[in-house]
Input
Amino acid sequence: MSRIIAGTAGGTSLTSVPGTGTRPTTDRVKEALFSRLESYDVLSGARVLDLFAGSGALGVESASRGAVSVDLVELADKAAGTCKQNAKLINDAAGRSVVNVHRAKADTYLLRVPADVTWDVVFLDPPYDLDEEDLNSVLRALPRHLAEGAVVVLERSTRSPEPVWPAGMERFSERKYGETTLWFAEPAQADGAEADDHDAGDAQAEGAS
Output
């Protein structure tokens, strides 16, 4: 059973998606991921978008660790229902709607959201069998919705090729955990200053592991 690892709701058990068709992030990968994000200092007060949310575990974990708003986007009916159950844990504790669930395709959601809506952290955890062009369509819709200094985390099979990063976004790191690879990207910076900051955060995270 998945759980919230740390923060205000740390230790709380989460509802899993019934049946098949989703691939939850393991606790090992989740712990490594959030250790890295905390070294980047991007979670506290963040606006978070969780695409292909599954059970919503990554978004809910972000809320527990200080994100001020989280949008979970999931198309599958059962998974979206699970997202709502897990979001309720955070929303009830906070006494307000911190985590919101949107039942929609990831690219459709991004295209219909107003251009001035931005996020500080974006998770993409699509099914490993998602067509690369379908993934690229989602990535192309992302850059205009990235806040300054935003971090994008894409989880893919280690056997998958590196994503095709669209104009306005660039990869600054990758980490492999067995069958899982995490790709880290950010808004493109002409002078590379933001990438240097993230590299420093990478060093801190590696030192702590």
